[in-house]
Amino acid sequence: MRESLNRDEIRVRELLESDTKALEMYQYLSGSPKVQSYLKTANRMAVSRLGYTDHGPVHAEVATWYALKAFDILDETFQPNVVAEGIGDTDDARLVVLASTYLHDIGMVVHRNEHPQAAILLAAPILEEKLKEIYSDPAVATDIMSFILHGIYAHDDDTQCLTLEAGLTKIGDGCDLTKGRTIIPYHKGKVDIHSVSAMAIRNLDLDRGNKPLRFTVGMDNPAGVFQVQAVLEKKLSTSGLSDHVEIDVLVNGNRLVLSQVKRLFRVHMTEDAQPIVREKE
Fold this sequence. Notes:
- This protein is of the alpha+beta class.
- The protein has one domain.
- It has helices spanning 21-31, 33-49, 57-74, 81-84, 90-103, 115-134, 138-153, 164-175, 179-187, 193-199, 224-237; strands spanning 78-79, 201-208, 213-219, 245-251, 254-256, 278-279.
């Protein structure tokens, strides 16, 4: 496990193969002046006006990187819905995860409240332009668009994900919880349980485990447990993937058993919906 995670050095490009549709979409989004402006403005709303954590270009990159890492691990066990429902192949599914994760927070330019709804309205025309170039069949382009918009909308904590791809977007979002994401509001005076907890977390690694996805969270002190419970576990509870994830917590290298820690945050589920994911034969 790495000693410390430098969020500014994470690059999605390293996870994408050449000559793929996913790479083409990433190059389009990361190079789009409109998308980058939306992300910077979203961050201004989040950090400067509300005192929240980073929701800008770095968060988009980090969340997408984690989502794709999780995709590559779970792809050995599950079929993405794009594949299972006969819409496309694994490259198409990866494009969906990439686009929905990269764009999930652009609705913050309007307001924090209902920002997933605002995000799908802003993302649709951006995506439509590129999807018409990538897919010659308008029907397929529309299907892929619907998957992406569901992923953007369902990243909200309380919205149940109904596809594997959306669940991966939610996981990617939840994984960006290290101290680098909250350091600016913390130093500006926002000192509460959320910021103190985030400042305790050095890194989060994803790898294969028994379930089959394992999160290993490294922290300097047990305050980071709140961030795991209030952010990561809450995201997992509506991702449709919670039964397939295990979480290891290391405090200064020593394993902490979450089940033995007093519950700091209780997740309330309002729906019993489950995602449509199929294990590979």
